[in-house]
Amino acid sequence: MPPKNKFSKEQIVDAAFNIANIDGIDSMTIRKVANQLGSSIAPIYVNFNDVEELKRAVVKKVVDVSQRMLKEQNTGNPFADIGYASLQFAREYPILFRDFVMKPNDYLLDYDQEMGDELAAHMKKDPKLKGFTDQELKIILFKMRAFQMGLSVMVANGLLQEKFDIEKMKEILDSVAEDVVTATRQRNKKD
Length: 191
Prior knowledge:
Blueprint: H1 9-23, H2 30-37, H3 42-47, H4 51-73, H5 78-92, H6 94-101, H7 107-123, H8 134-156, H9 166-190
Helix pairs in contact: 1-2, 1-4, 4-5, 4-7, 5-6, 5-8, 5-9, 6-8, 8-9
């Protein structure tokens, strides 16, 4: 008879997420998760075939947390929302942020796939972006994500001076977004 499932899948993922948040996703093991739960490894193997499947569940939780942070912004400005959510994630989960962004891994591919459609849909809500083709929106998004990612890396690694509080960083993101959109419109007028 299989072992009785003592913990829900969600509880196991939460424990694994906590470990990944403290030590990094690659240091997560079934044994560490079991220890975090105060359990044997059996309940984990009832829910997950191996550590890779559990890591994928943690990645899904990271995507869910990121989507929640994005939805909480809701300023009406998609670039601001995307940037603010990224900065917030980098501040609250710096180790996970570094795992996803600064280390070669397959996890970011999953994350980008999950978030890509969400970000594109979010951009189309902005009246300031009317008239741009899907291709132009993708390029604008790429430019903004490159800038916002760099700023978020600086946040996650504590590389900014104290004068760069969250409000100052938001001002900078807004300014860059305006510059990118204005430059794209100007190029369209020349063509």
